[in-house]
């Protein structure tokens, strides 16, 4: 039940956005074992100056205007190894498919409880029994 928010520059084309979304979704299903078909992605495109990042190196990373912020809200419980594999897969795949610098792939995972989700109708579909 992931929800993905992707913030990126207006300079990315529709095709590139599609590849970014498909890459994140594939990693969620293949690596993090999210349910197939559970594809909820929100893209927000930004004008120059709206994506702020450190001007100097931060943790060894030097970012460009092509930075892509990916935030994934999902059910808690995945191991550190799964999360590391997810990060690596997304960065490597975006670099290979559309040339995004791995340094410009910024990812944040947010672990949530099952009862933190409503998929519609005002219901808590995964309510505790």
Summarize the structure.
The protein is α/β, with parallel strands linked by helices. The protein has helices at residues 14-30, 80-98; strands at 3-9, 41-46, 68-75, 105-112.
Give the SSE map:
Blueprint: E1 3-9, H1 14-30, E2 41-46, E3 68-75, H2 80-98, E4 105-112
Parallel strand pairs: 1-2, 3-4
Antiparallel strand pairs: 1-3
What does this structure look like?
- A four-stranded mixed β-sheet has the order 2-1-3-4, with helices on one face.
- It is globular.
- The two termini are 18 Å apart.
- By secondary structure, it is an alpha/beta fold.
- It has one domain: Macrophage Migration Inhibitory Factor, CATH 3.30.429.10.
- It has two helices and four strands.
- The mean pLDDT is 94.
Any key phrases for this structure?
129 residues; Macrophage Migration Inhibitory Factor; 28% helix; alpha/beta
